[in-house]
DNA sequence: ATGGTAGTGTGACTA
């Protein structure tokens, strides 16, 4: 049995707990990493996960905004919440667990969206995003001796031309500007990460994980972006069985604007 | 060029 992991920006875990339950019943990953839970820790719906066999729930939430959670069938050996940019946002959570005999550090990240104007001098949100990216450079796939690593989350950047519906039309749109895409690719390269989803579904195939709410019909023109990612240390990359994007979830009732992304690794 | 929708929680913010 391979080890399976999924990441999903759920845009309110309480509002969409029914969709999450449906996803866990039908796909049953060993670990599910959620972003944008928008839920204070004391109100997190732990019981729903426990009832489905996910007895291990690590949360890093705050009221109203952001928030990440890692839901697991396997127990955690360590939990870390990193305060990126030291402003108290709940945007990171990492756990260490053992999958079979393999210790794995799993980082769950929600990178700032960055606002509308891609100029750090006039847009503090974009400045924050670039600062966050800079801080991510310290995240190394080989950071812990003898521990494999996975980094997942809504990274809010579509790094390759084939990760957006129109490279040309999005070059000046936050999420696909050169300073962001170069920055993210540098984090991958310097950190020694392996982009598992692009390993399984290589370019030039187009691939998206997010479609805006601001359109009557999300399928019209298929104007998506690949904002959600699964990276791993090279030892795990070599054992990748499959990776996939659950596109159909965008058509579920009252959907998130992001869909689940999954990977299976043969340990 | 603009505005379009969604969530939290009833304001204005974030995305």
UniProtKB/TrEMBL annotation:
**Looking at the keywords, is Methyltransferase present?**
no
Q: Does the keyword Hydrolase apply?
A: yes
Q: Where in this chain does the record put each Endonuclease/exonuclease/phosphatase domain?
A: 6-258
Q: Which Pfam families match?
A: Exo_endo_phos
According to the UniProt entry, what is the EC number of this protein?
3.1.11.2
Q: What class of enzyme is it?
A: hydrolase
Q: What are the record keywords, sorted?
A: Hydrolase, Magnesium, Metal-binding
Instruction: Enumerate the cofactors the protein uses.
Output: Mg(2+)
**Source organism superkingdom:** Bacteria
GO terms for MF? double-stranded DNA 3'-5' DNA exonuclease activity
NCBIfam families xref list: xth (TIGR00633)
- What is stated as this protein's family in its record? Belongs to the DNA repair enzymes AP/ExoA family.
The protein's name: Exodeoxyribonuclease III
Organism, per UniProt? Answer: Aureimonas populi
The root-end lineage is: Bacteria, Pseudomonadati, Pseudomonadota, Alphaproteobacteria, Hyphomicrobiales
